[in-house]
Amino acid sequence: MNDMNNANEDLLFSSAYARLLSRSGIPGLGEISQAALLEDTALTEEQLHSTNYLKWSQARRMLVNIEAAGAKADWPIGFANQLGPSSHGPLGFAAISAATLGDALKVLAQYHATRTATLDFRLLKDSDFNSQANSCAISIDDLTYDPHYGRQILEMSIKAVLTIIETIVGHPLMHNVSVQFVYPAPAYAKKLNAGLEVDCQFNCATNAIIMPASWLDIVSPLYDESTYRANIVKCREQLAALYAIKKDPALLIKERLAQCFDQMRAEGEYLEKLPDLEQCATELALSTRTLIRRLQLDNTSYKKILEQVRSEYAADLLTTTHLSANDIGSMLAYSDPSNFIRAFKQWYGITPSNWRKRKS
After folding, report:
1. DSSP state letters, 265-280
2. What domain count does the chain have?
């Protein structure tokens, strides 16, 4: 059966990585031309460079072509070893410039889909998985359910995450970190272990990277608040674009609103107007009326999403900044500070000032 018909068309993959495959070269294979890489993908070279996301079927076909050209079984780790944090765009920059390793992992969990939407990342504590105490884990689920080519993307992504962790902790990870795979040990298990440079375990309940829980508090040597905030805005923009492609109105609206609030926080300037229903409908290629109906089917509305995003930002800003309630209300696009205070009491049952006192 044709590979293109087998694949899950709802899954998307960043074309940036596909471009890196042709530019960086495949270890053990040498150069592979873009024409050979794109064979049977229904993509032209121009499309590869002009699009942001590929269908999983197209990305999978590229992996088939790489294998057909003679690449060794462990090539994904060799390829990932060529990539530094900057290779992952705003996601990589936001992760390494976050305040702590824990914050960096939260960035990867929240925005990983901007690069690999074929995977699902979750940050777990030791009570959430079967492991030793005083540890934490990043659980990584392969959404392709493809035991061969999905695994290749998984291995690349795990190596990318390990590189970011090592950049922040400042030393080789070695036996402090282990990686679990749900798959049986492959024929190249020794090379995989050597390439990841940590202990690998197979036939496990979940794919996961496990490390000491105390590491979450390690301060990143590259921490920079302005760089972090600027790249979070870019991540939000990319995630909203992904939801537009996937025609997910509720998530697109949430990300567009959050992007505005992040941008205001990063730049210190208040926006006079937030993205409205009409703008979001245009981005989704829907009429405003159709968008309203789609939101109703999800038991939500533009107003409900706006209130959810505002409530989350209000709590975070009161906890992590010294901004006054009036300033926070302005940042959240309230025309009157009293309206913000009234809304906050509806969300949390207390005033912003009392919330801050409880959290201090």
Report:
1. HHH----S----HHHH
2. 3
